[in-house]
Structure to design on (212 residues):
């Protein structure tokens, strides 16, 4: 019997025995739809992790462990999701802005968003405004910008200006975050949303697409 609860629990506890790929594969083999495995297994587990992170019951290491379990399961699930045409709840182009090489927080945000059902286009680190522009032309609904350095925060403003200059500002919502970034800064540069951590990034992204 496929046990989606067990899949969720492995996300919550970490994939210690390397079992999540097998659990995911057997659920699919038993005829559970890829969408159900995603929503009732992986996303359900990741929601618990997100809540615990918000409540300071989990810290960065636990979230990274959950993210790794999620990544393992997604290796099995992603091709099946694509085949079965399960629509993502939105497309997010995420990256650390130009000049900035910090990616641990950005990766956590990407993983939590993927866990919540968003399709992620991870542009990596040191991402030029033009790369975000290209991602929006490619269909991104949300541009998610991370910065860890006070000196690279202006690249967030430049990215928004580049979207503006290309007439794309109404095509995608822009959300920003990272340790030195604040809601005030988001307001100042005209970003649509700000999130302080990876769990709230999911809420912000959903709010931006009117899903919260
Ligand atoms: Co750097 N570094 N670093 N560093 N580094 C900081 C950020 C710093 C605060 C350290 C310090 O001086 N105390 C300081 C910045 C000072 C400032 O500007 N105010 C700093 C500096 C100065 C530098 C260099 C300039 C050092 C040098 O070379 N002289 C250099 C810059 C390189 C560059 O980027 N061009 C540099 C390099 C590096 C390493 C490469 C060694 C390494 C990065 C490795 C990597 O990322 N792959 C590194 C690290 C690890 C850090 C610290 C120690 C940890 C950052 C981290 O990963 N935190 C950091 C000091 C610190 O924070 N204690 C520091 C854990 C991570 C989970 O948190 O990234 O904040 P965080 O992400 C959170 C939230 O911010 C939020 O959610 C995440 C999860 O909750 N969030 C978002 C992040 N992005 C978001 C996007 C969103 C929403 C939320 O929406 C889109």
């Amino acid at each position: 019997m496929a046990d989606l609860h067990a899949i969720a629990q492995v996300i919550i506890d970490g994939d210690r025995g390397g079992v999540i790929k097998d659990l995911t594969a057997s659920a699919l083999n038993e005829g559970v739809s890829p969408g159900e495995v995603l929503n009732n297994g992986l996303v359900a587990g990741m929601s618990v992790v997100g809540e615990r992170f918000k409540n300071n019951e989990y810290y960065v290491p636990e979230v990274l462990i959950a993210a790794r379990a999620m990544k393992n399961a997604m290796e099995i699930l992603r091709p099946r999701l694509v085949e079965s045409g399960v629509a993502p709840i939105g497309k997010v182009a995420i990256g650390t802005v130009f000049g900035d090489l910090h990616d641990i927080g950005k990766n956590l945000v990407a993983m939590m968003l993927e866990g919540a059902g968003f399709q992620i286009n991870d542009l990596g680190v040191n991402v030029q405004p033009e790369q975000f522009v290209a991602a929006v032309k490619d269909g991104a609904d949300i541009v998610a910008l991370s910065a860890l350095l006070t000196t690279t925060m202006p690249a967030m403003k430049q990215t928004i200006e580049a979207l503006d200059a290309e007439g794309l500002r109404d095509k995608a919502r822009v959300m920003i975050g990272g340790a030195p970034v604040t809601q005030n800064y988001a307001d100042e540069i005209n970003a649509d949303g700000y999130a302080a951590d990876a769990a709230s990034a999911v809420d912000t992204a959903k709010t931006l697409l009117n899903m919260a």
User: Anything to note?
Assistant: The chain has nine helices and five strands. The first strand starts at residue 91 and ends at 96. The longest helix spans residues 60-84.
